[in-house]
Design goal:
Strand content of chain A: under 5%
Oligomer: heterodimer
Number of strands of chain A: 0
Largest sheet of chain A: none
Largest sheet of chain B: 5 strands, mixed
Largest interface: A-B, 24 and 25 residues
InterPro entries (chain B): AvModA-like_subst-bd, ModA, ModA/WtpA
Pfam families (chain B): SBP_bac_11
Structural class of chain B: alpha/beta
Family (chain B): Belongs to the bacterial solute-binding protein ModA family.
Helix content of chain B: 40-55%
Number of helices of chain B: 11
Order of helices and strands of chain A: HHHHHHHHHHH
Protein name (chain B): Molybdate ABC transporter substrate-binding protein
Radius of gyration of chain B: 21 Å
Radius of gyration of chain A: 20 Å
Keywords (chain B): Metal-binding, Signal
Shape of chain A: globular
Number of helices of chain A: 11
Distance between the termini of chain B: 62 Å
Shape of chain B: elongated
Number of strands of chain B: 12
Order of helices and strands of chain B: HEHEHEHEEHEHHEHEHEEEEHH
Strand order of the largest sheet of chain B: 2-1-3-12-4
């Protein structure tokens, strides 16, 4: 029988990481879509880097960076943040970094598509900038936020290399579906591997289908 | 012009043919990868043949072979998987090339690892996944023998093979862990940190078998390499990594 604890851990991870991604991704992508700063290119490259880097490279550097032997790891320890590798918090941090580009891209596109006009109209009606952001820009960017959430969620569900590097394969904490599938294949337990891998594929397919369907409906309604 | 092209193509073919024929792909379990690189370097110096090496956990390589990986020879970390490959008709003959030793290792020098282990004075203990790696199984057996297996459950981190396990300890993220002696022992001495060699009767002997796979049966390089392995030079290299 498939270990449901693994599925539960993976889902928990995906929900938490998606929430973190939106909190971090929305301000960054809004800034990217509006800023004229000369550092914009650098920020954009840094945010896209996790998409092109092999996950093992990212995992390896996180393992080295967060190690208790490193200055950064010791600084974290002094701040009262416990050792991150081999913990749920550790893989959540790693997955957030790795999935960031998948959230930033759709969000940035959405903010760019809105343009500056709605915000200018709101300003002439004496809306404060924060009012404008929360009551005009965010609702208009909803299809982008929806797409970004689904992309971030699905990408985290399938996360493998980074978790393998810093996870430590601990049941209930860092053993996620993709690692479990890998183990099933190595142990030649193909039945269990099929069940998990097939389930993951169907779920991801259904999510992407839903995403495109919702976005198309939204576009039809407003164009 | 066309003629020239044809001639150069033929010349190229002949040029590459010996190179192509004289190569072999060898799958090596993590614990023997270091010694294997040393053996390969010495072997290619002596015979001008070269092996291409591919490493992974024994379970991982076994699964790859069962699914058609193009390896000629497989150096496993146990006797079970080579035997199974022969039963499945995927390999022709197997032989024991080394007996492995399990050690408890930490990067911090001067530690009494046994008392550290029995007093549970650590946060993470790394071992290879017992399901995938024979050294992981040996670690599990040793911990059971010391009546500590239940006690360490909450502190255990599992590597998918010995290399990730080594990485967990070497990076300092796990304070100590069980690895193969060959990973921390080179040219007759331990590299760094503290080491405790687990008594040999704590775990079932780790006899490591190699098996000639179907694709490698008539490969002259494989035959040459197997003959080379029997030489004193090769045996000395294997011993210098702490195998028995």
């Amino acid at each position: 029988m498939v270990d449901w604890l693994v599925v539960a851990t993976t889902l928990k991870l995906a929900f938490i990481v998606t929430a973190a991604l939106l909190v971090i991704g929305i301000p960054i992508s809004w800034w990217l879509s509006h800023s004229q700063s000369r550092f914009k290119g650098v920020v954009e490259a840094v945010c896209t880097l996790p998409m092109v880097l092999p996950p093992t490279v990212l995992g390896f550097y996180l393992l080295v960076l967060l190690s208790p032997n490193s200055a950064f790891g010791q600084a974290l320890d002094k701040l009262g943040i416990a050792q991150l590798p081999f913990s749920f918090a550790g893989i959540a941090v790693a997955c957030t970094i790795h999935s960031l580009p998948f959230v930033i891209q759709p969000l940035k596109n959405a903010f760019e598509a809105i343009g500056s006009q709605p915000a200018e109209v709101a300003a002439t009606l004496r809306a404060s900038p924060s009012d404008t952001f929360f009551h005009v820009t965010l609702p208009l960017a909803w299809p982008g936020i929806f797409s970004a959430s689904i992309m971030g969620f699905c990408h985290t569900l399938g996360e493998f290399g980074v978790v393998l590097m810093i996870g430590g394969n601990i049941p209930g904490k860092t053993r996620v579906m993709s690692v479990e599938i890998y183990n099933y294949v190595e142990a030649l337990e193909y039945g269990k591997a099929h069940l998990l891998a097939g389930g993951l594929m169907l779920f991801s397919f259904a999510s992407l289908l839903l995403m495109h369907w919702v976005n198309n409906r939204y576009r039809l309604r407003f164009s | 012009m066309l003629r020239l092209w044809r001639i150069s193509l033929i010349v190229l073919c002949f040029w590459f043919k010996p190179l192509y024929a004289a190569s072999a792909i060898v799958a090596v379990a993590n614990n023997f990868y270091g010694p294997m690189k040393a053996l390969n370097a010495d072997f290619s110096q002596q015979t001008e043949h070269a092996l291409q090496l591919s490493t992974g956990s024994t379970g991982q390589l076994y699964a790859q072979i069962v699914n058609g990986a193009p390896f000629d020879l497989f150096f496993a970390a146990d006797t079970l998987r080579p035997q199974t490959l022969i039963e499945k008709g995927l390999g022709s003959s197997s032989f024991t090339y080394a007996q492995g030793c399990l050690v408890l290792w930490s990067t911090s020098p001067g530690l009494d690892l046994v008392s550290l282990l029995t007093q549970q004075d650590f946060t993470h203990l790394a071992i290879a996944d017992p399901k995938l790696a024979p050294y992981g199984l040996a670690a599990q057996q040793s911990l059971s023998k010391m009546a500590l297996w239940q006690a360490v459950q909450a502190k255990l981190v599992l590597g998918n093979g010995l290399n990730p396990t080594y990485q967990f300890i070497a990076s300092g993220n796990a304070e100590l862990g069980f690895v193969a002696k060959s990973q921390v022992f080179k040219q007759g001495q331990y590299r760094e940190g503290s080491v405790w060699q687990v008594p040999i009767d704590y775990y079932q002997p780790i006899l490591q078998d190699a098996v000639i796979l179907r694709k490698g049966q008539n490969n002259p390089v494989i035959n040459a390499f197997i003959n080379y392995l029997k030489t004193e030079r090769a045996q000395a290299i294997i011993k210098s990594y702490g195998y028995q």
